[in-house]
Design brief:
- The chain is of the alpha+beta class and 198 residues long.
- 51% of the residues lie in helices and 17% in strands.
- The chain has a single domain (3-197), classed as Histidine kinase-like ATPase, C-terminal domain (Heat Shock Protein 90).
- Strands 2-4-5-7-6 form a 5-stranded mixed sheet.
- The protein is globular, with a radius of gyration of 18 Å.
């Protein structure tokens, strides 16, 4: 993946997230208006409401992971809000340990690494983002850790070889974006734990 293609893919991600967030917000507002007018809540309303919340949570997460990133700082409160809502959409609990604000590109790397770890936890589990000095660690734990070594070994390659699917695009993006930031991605794992470092 060339720098040009990478930049284009990031802009596409930003555009999609930007264009979807408004109509989803409008649906949420419409549901609130229905409640205010005394509409009787039922399973249909609850299904729509849950779907809107899940879609909004995923778009907020994907906007950071796949969208364009300036150098603005992101604080822990904002990051935890995104991770808390995103965790509700799946079987994995996500947590963020660093207390200081961080530049958005570094947060994006962590979010991409979270998505990589998620693929290794088919039965669910927990993923924690931690930082020691300048070293970042994303640690996934669960009853079962299962990963495709061919796919995971691409994390240390830049430019990335092979083809990624839409479900695994986070792997080449993490490798390429880490390289652009002067970082080398490494990982270790056992039967109940997987850890990405950069």
């Amino acid at each position: 993946m060339t720098d040009h293609n990478l930049d284009i893919s990031v802009l596409v991600g930003s555009r999609i997230c930007h264009d979807l967030i408004s109509p989803i917000g409008a649906i949420a507002n419409g549901l609130e208006l229905l409640e205010l007018t005394g509409a009787t809540p039922g399973p249909e309303m609850e299904l729509i409401s849950t779907s809107v919340r899940n879609a909004n949570a995923r778009i907020r997460f994907f906007r950071i992971a796949f969208g364009a990133a300036g150098e603005q700082l992101m604080g822990r409160t904002e990051i935890m809000s995104v991770l808390k809502d995103f965790s509700k959409t799946g079987r994995i609990e996500m947590s963020w340990v660093p207390s200081d604000p961080h530049p958005r590109p570094m947060v994006r790397l962590a979010f991409l690494a979270l998505l990589c770890c998620e693929t290794a936890l088919p039965q669910g589990g927990a993923i924690r983002v931690d930082q020691e000095d300048d070293q970042w660690k994303i640690i996934g734990t669960g009853s079962t850790v299962s990963l495709d070594p061919v796919l995971w070994n691409t994390l240390g390659e830049a430019p990335v070889s092979g083809n990624a699917s839409s479900a695994t695009v986070q792997f080449p993006l993490l490798a390429e974006m880490a390289t652009k930031l002067g970082r080398k991605v490494e990982f270790v794992h056992d039967s109940e734990r997987v850890e990405i470092q950069y």
